[in-house]
Amino acid sequence: MSDTQHRSSIYALGESRLPRFILTSPRSRAALAIVLIVASLALALAYLSGSLGKDRLTSSGVLDAVTSDAPHPFPAGFRRAHGKGMCFQGTFEPSKQARMLSSAALFSDQSTPVLGRFSLGSGDPRVADNSTRSLSISLLLKEANGSEWRMALLNDPFFPTATVEGLLAMGAAFAPDPATMEPSQERIESFYQSYPEARKYIDWTSKAPWGSSFAVTQFNSINTFVFINAQGERRFVRWALRPHTPFTTWPESERESAAADALFVEVRNRIEKEPVRWDLVVAVAAQEDPVNDPSQPWPENRESVVAGVISIKSVSEQADGACRDLNFDPTIVPEGIEISEDPVLRARSGVYAKSFNLRENEIGLQSLDAGGTHQ
Amino acid sequence: MNTPGKQPHRYNALARLLHWVMAALIIAMMFIGAGISSSLQWRPVLLDYHLAIGSCLFALVLIRLGNRIFSKGPVAVSGIPKLQAVAVAVAHTTLYALIAILPIVGWGMLSAGGYPRPVFFGWMLPALVEPEPQLYSLLHIAHVVLAYAFFALIMIHLAAALGHAWIKKDGVFSRMGLGSDAK
After folding, report:
1. Could you report the predicted ipTM of this complex, rounded to two decimals?
2. Who has the most CB within 10 Å: A5, A79, A106, B24?
3. Stretch B10-22: mean pLDDT
4. Could you say which of B31, B44, B131 has the minimum Cβ distance to residue A325?
5. Which of residues 118-137 of B touch A (CB under 8 A)?
6. Percent of chain A scoring above 90 in pLDDT
């Protein structure tokens, strides 16, 4: 840019918008332009990092909202959600059919080591096992080539809402009103109007049976992923771990008198006797199935493939087990698998990372409470 | 090319090209990094880009440092107070150091956090350290603090460069400028 061009552009900017007294010389106009450039870059960075513009939802904001009823202060070293858990190790053996859906190496390898974790869905890591129906399982399958497939599955068959915003709205709607200490029916109704899909979830949770063991429970991916096979064919899929042990309920009469760690003791004893197994069942979406809405389960009759068997062979306490310092971020997938655009799946990545960073910081840098135990 | 014995008054073409390519990548990395820490929808995608660009930047900075060490730098800018010259030298060395250190800290952080090893053009990099919560936390904090310090220093560098180009018009900017040899 020549000097005259340069000068005239600065004049044009200055005379129309800015007070005259700071623009008396080309030098001061140039200085102002430099300040504006630097300031806008810095503001853009601050906005992107989430420290400016509190109107939009960030990973930290979601973590704060979903842990609003967690104990204060939060016990150091635990996961912010699904905090009570136990580590395990096992193997994954694929079926021959799996290769037709995905070229992931673990579907061709004979056996892949599995690290994982059983957990309760509660936000308080110190609750008794009979306090929640919500159970979860996390897995890390490590391929021989170093690639990893991490998953975090729930015993719920679908997500309460289509979006994270919906989940937070649900938390707010069902929170007890400070005046009455009861949830406000009015607020719940207005929530259902905004997020009608949540009614299905609330109905389901009120009727769903409690499982008597982790080993008899089916766990679901909830979110949609993409499997890509060697021919490059892409299919939207969801998967479930279907237990080899038949489902049995945990009747209320037994639950009431159950010990605080009943489920964890039960599954430990079971696995010490013999491996506990699940089929990895992969369901393929039909053309009309919603792929980016985790609140909409697909019909039962969708094409599905038993992609292999997960065998859990040993357990260890999470206080010193291999699963403690792992972030089971379900967006970590090997080649042959991709994540979908499901907004809840995408959001899990950032929220899990925030929880992981807090926990590792407490374990690594702060003195732990209760003598360093995590269970 | 430069005649032997005579010092050029600009950085060589490779240095200038690398400077501007890396400048664009580094600014992108800053914004991507900030997005990773906050974005609900784009974190997994941004993380992929961050690791890919970070690996490239580390490779590029090695080439750049090699070129800086083994080629003749330009003549010193004349008429600058000694103290200012020292401050500039410190600032430039710190910029080089941060470009080289940030990818290593990020890579070490992934290893210490038990995350999958990053992939660089199809080649899976080795783990730098064993997973360890204390080391992970220290490296994570270091990555964030150094990145913001880097950004602040880049903003000072940018303001100074534009000051030379637009206010002082003393030819300092063209030492690293992409345009033809004007001086």
Report:
1. 0.91
2. A106
3. 94
4. B131
5. 124, 131-137
6. 82
Contacts of A27 in chain B (CB under 8 A): 167
> Which tokens is A71 given?
């104990």
Q: A40, A360, A365, A366: best mutation site toward chain B, by most B Cβ within 10 Å?
A: A360
Q: Distance, in angstroms, between A110 CA and closest chain B CA?
A: 21
Chain A within 8 Å of B19 (Cβ-Cβ)?
no
Residues of B with Cβ-Cβ distance to A33 under 8 angstroms: 162, 166
- Can you list the residues of chain A whose pLDDT is less than 70? 1-22, 367-375
pLDDT tens-digit profile of B131-165?
Answer: 999 999 999 999 999 999 999 999 999 999 999 99
User: Which chain A residues contact residue B142 at CB under 8 A?
Assistant: none
Rounded to two decimals, what is the model's pTM?
Answer: 0.90
